[in-house]
Amino acid sequence: MSKVKGFSKLSKQEKINWLIDNYFPNQPSAKNILLQYWNTDEQLQALHDGFIENTLSNFYLPYAVSPNFLIDGEYYTLPMVIEESSVVAASSKAAKFWAERGGFHTRVLGTKKIGHIHLIYKGKSQEIFDYFQTNKQLFKKAINPLQENMQKRGGGILSIDFVNQTDKLPGYYQIVMTFDTVDSMGANFINTVLEEFSEIFVENMPNELRQKTDIIMRILSNYTPECVVRAEVECPVEQLRTSNMSGKEYADKFIAAIKIAEAEPYRAVTHNKGIMNGVDAVVLATGNDFRAVEADVHAYASRNGQYTSLSHASVNNGIFRFWLELPLAIGTVGGLTALHPLAKFSLQLLKNPSAKGLMRIIASAGLAQNFAAINALITDGIQQGHMKMHLNNLLKLLNANPSEIALAKSYFANKKVNFNELKRLLNRK
Ligand code: MEV
Prior knowledge:
four-stranded antiparallel sheet; 47% helix; 17 helices; single chain; 4 domains
């Protein structure tokens, strides 16, 4: 295998050839695996190639929809991009269940985002504080043109503060800026403002201060504990009755499952992963940054020093309530939301929501998924639903014909699916 020079400058074909020559020398057909995913529409392919660097092909994920989400009195069909079987079925089932009980009620608790200029100052605190304070208005004025468009849309810079962080690290200070980025996720806006602000901050410094100042980095924080949405469902306890549990028994067991996730980080991680099955699927379908959302949500789940459940439940006066709070820094304009045709389609399907609207929808998707998971866990277990999907996949793998499919489905109707047993049943080797 050789070291490659100037790889990014090669054409797509040349990159593929290099890859096949070096990593698949005895398998030239491996090239076709990449080529078969190219879109025949060259313009569309070029669009996707342009999203990132060194693009060779496309990696498909299924795009599904989950209907019957009644959110704040309006019905939605949610777009979901996810590779895991059962998630969409579970989402749709939970949405229908709650639509019959008043649906999801949501509230955006805040939309504030935050960014920092991290710097080291090797002088007296008072000097740098005085410099910041004396010149703050000048800095603000200089930065103003950058936020004109954002201000027209109703957002902009909310606050600018100089913060002493020397108890965390010697010489460490921050310029902390908070923002309202309205319908955009805001990363570009925030980072541009921070970079420009730091230039102005340093340029105007007297020499003796500048010599003691080292700007380390200027970057938004993906932790957004003040950009948070809440989603909730509720119903009388008796409406939770199942074929073999009273409403009270069901509610008690459900709440016990939640309390375990609140108390035990091992369970909390899996519990929250179930929430993220719904959240990420809609985040991806709408072209949003799922890594940012994941990092944010899990930091939020640990905000009190121990990783815990994002959702909670209670019963008061015979009413069962189930809710979650999620920090969500997402956008409905800019970034991929405007460029990816399927992301645009998803947003249109969701009636072109504002960022706040999309926060409400995503939180409902997360709560529905969490409800479906806990419901399965405290009743039949999750394998039953999974196994049905698993059987379908195995039948596809074995190229089963319709009568074999019917035979296998009735054979495994009340039985754990086992691949060897299936093969025996269908006379496969
Ligand atoms: C599987 O993707 C998600 C679950 O494990 C979530 C949970 O346990 O709550 C079912």
